[in-house]
Amino acid sequence: xxxxxxxxxxxxxxxxxxxxxxxxxxxxxxxxxxxxxxxxxxxxxxxxxxxxxxxxxxxxxxxxxxxxxxxxxxxxxxxxxxxxxxxxxxxxxxxxxxxxxxxxxxxxxxxxxxxxxxxxxxxxxxxxxxxxxxxxxxxxxxxxxxxxxxxxxxxxxxxxxxxxxxxxxxxxxxxxxxxxxxxxxxxxxxxxxxxxxxxxxxxxxxxxxxxxxxxxxxxxxxxxxxxxxxxxxxxxxxxxxxxxxxxxxxxxxxxxxxxxxxxxxxxxxxxxxxxxxxxxxxxxxxxxxxxxxxxxxxxxxxxxxxxxxxxxxxxxxxxxxxxxxxxxxxxxxxxxxxxxxxxxxxxxxxxxxxxxxxxxxxxxxxxxxxxxx
Length: 373
Hints:
Elements lengths: L6 E6 L5 H7 L1 E7 L5 E9 L5 E7 L6 E3 L2 E5 L2 E6 L4 E7 L5 E8 L2 E9 L23 E8 L8 E5 L2 E8 H9 L6 E2 L9 E8 L7 H16 L2 E16 L7 E3 L8 E2 L6 E7 L1 H12 L4 E3 L6 E7 L27 H9 L1 E17 L7
Parallel strand pairs: 1-5, 14-22, 16-20
Antiparallel strand pairs: 1-4, 2-3, 2-10, 3-4, 6-7, 7-8, 8-9, 9-10, 11-15, 12-13, 13-15, 16-22, 17-21, 18-19, 19-21
């Protein structure tokens, strides 16, 4: 529940009579308590096509805005599905139309949430979006540290804390695949320690504002060169790949136009649960190749822009080597999600085709262990 919403844009379809939509539009606010109070604001309005759109804000967490999936209002029942974070809200409006009492669900957790219609005088102040880093700002970290990870700390993470970029429990191979957008098999000639020794990295950008994805990866490449003397040359080699393509039924994705140059959010909520916010198809291909699958994934969808979605599947023991975890035995639950290749077709309208293709590889000329901070 900690990862609950920064900004989330919900685009939905209205069910029921138009008069009901008129009564649910406006600003609604309430408080979740997943261990600490989190103030939530829903701003619901009509769209020209006759549906509903809603902006959702987490007042106490702030952060960038993202799009999610659906809003429906039928009778007195309001339902929202927030696919990007695996969340949902269902509630019933009171007879006087002043409140909506319901339940917030995220993953396996459920919390009560009562929304109250706000007025200009009672509405909570919505946090401003973070300022973007200037396009011509230097793509370097002003201050950066690299230190060995705590061997007892589980997991792996790439994230921001304010303006500070952080990685936890990452190998140098992880840093290379992230920075250069390659899969582990595309790194040739590197010493074995880049796959075994783990580090925590923190970096504060030199320029003001939040860097976009391109700027962040340029900063990481500069850090690798400066601190690890990382040097490469590129070659093209034919190798087995998965091609990400659009399925026969067409894509089943929610478009996100809120932050075209912003950072995507693709953080696993468990093995086989991937909520994505503001993610391009190239972002999805990279996550599949770096964390889940055992070979490069090539984006051949030709789908421009960014999307929100949640992909849920039952993984097998050939997957998630990129996260350094062991997949448990297959579930015997008849209601368990399908395997990855079926799930990606049914849930996203995409396919992963097993094929061969020319792929750029990084041939490592030099890499040293990280220098002292």
